[in-house]
Amino acid sequence: MFKFLQNLAPKDENQLEKSAPKKKISKKRQAYVPVYLDLPEMSLVQPSGDMSSKIREELREPDADTIAKDIVIIREWLDKQPHLPKDMDDQRLTTFLRGCKFSLEKVKQKLDMYYTMRNAIPEFFTNRDINRPELGEIMDIADMPPLPGLTPGGCRVVCLRAVDRDNMPNNVADGMKLALMIGDIRLYEEKTGVAGDVYVLDASVATPTHFAKFTPTLVKKFLVCVQEAYPVRLKEVHVINVSPLVDTIVNFVKPFLKEKIRERIHIHSNLEDLYKFVPKEMLPSEYGGNAGSIKDLNEQWRNKIKDYTQWFKDQEASKANESLRPGGARGETDLFGVDGSFRQLSID
């Protein structure tokens, strides 16, 4: 049971179970009430009912038999790729299909990039053990939890913020590594499929010292990886607690983003403006919501990542073998370019 419910729910858990189903929403107010009451600690709400139907329609999701046939086709394609691993399970393949709106060609491109990035960017995909001090340090000084609830449109919200203005990690690549580890966990746990992702970036402690840690090469690698290798459907990015530095940071990042993503960045001068996009009730308490402390949510994600420790170790060898790639190996220049532009992989 989420810790934030302790202040909202009856002290008697039996009373909570009896009272929760009777809760009604005022038709006049039409408030958004997140579905949290039946969840174990740090579970992710999955779409259901009308929300799930609308998401399936938006993604053009076919019936279960067609999805099963698509998975067979993808596996047959993987079998013919000597450079790619064959260890992708049905759940993650289904997530890739949803993220690509069931375009088999896009899925092939994403999968090739998913495994290629693991070989091309070892700073993101090796030593992925949350028990290592450098990763523990990131969790101590930065919060990056996906929130348990969903927006009315069925989107997952992820909050990111640094905790201390004067405390920076020795290696910001470790923060990017953790973000991708969370992404890999979500590939497993988003079993029904969400409409997309919404990111809330809190810039309250952003300083030039923080900004200087993010080199163009590192940022490019991370954004290419997220945009090209993961089945992410980014709906919105919201930046809150802004300062003059934020404009500099946004302009620095924009060249590495696809045009449609650049158009989805929103800068907010106050939280009331954010609430027009993300329901207040589903946000952490620091932002006026009922989802509990962002620090508590971050700690729950730390524990969840620990549960995947062995899986991350096993995945170290799951990467493209460039020596076996038809047509020759792909190096950094092929993947990231030399002039700041990203060069697409060609997929047979």
Description of the molecule:
With 348 residues, this protein is of the alpha/beta class. 44% of the residues lie in helices and 9% in strands. Strands 1, 2, 3, 4, 5 and 6 form a 6-stranded mixed β-sheet that branches. The protein is globular, with a radius of gyration of 21 Å. The termini are far apart.
Descriptive key words:
single chain, 348 residues, 9% strand, 6 strands, alpha/beta, disordered C terminus
Task: Tell me the layout of helices and strands.
Blueprint lengths: L12 H7 L29 H10 L5 H16 L10 H10 L4 H17 L1 H4 L7 H9 E2 L2 E5 L4 E8 L10 H17 L6 E7 L5 H5 L3 H14 L4 E7 L3 H10 L5 H4 L2 E3 L3 H4 L19 H14 L1 H6 L17 H5 L12
Parallel strand pairs: 3-4, 4-5, 5-6
Antiparallel strand pairs: 1-3, 2-3
Protein name: CRAL-TRIO domain-containing protein
Pfam family, one: CRAL_TRIO
GO molecular function: phosphatidylinositol bisphosphate binding
Number of strands: 6
First-to-last CA distance: 48 Å
SSE class: alpha/beta
Measured by DSSP, the beta-strand proportion falls in 5-15%
- Helix and strand pattern: HHHHHHHEEEHEHHEHHEHHHH
Net shape: globular
Described by strand count, sense and barrel closure, the largest sheet is:
6 strands, mixed
Classify the helix fraction into a percent range: 40-55%
Radius of gyration: 21 Å
The DSSP helix count reads 16
Unreliable sequence segments: 1-39, 339-348
Mean pLDDT across all amino acids: 85
What's the gist of this structure?
With 348 residues, the chain is α/β, with parallel strands linked by helices. The chain has 16 helices and six strands.
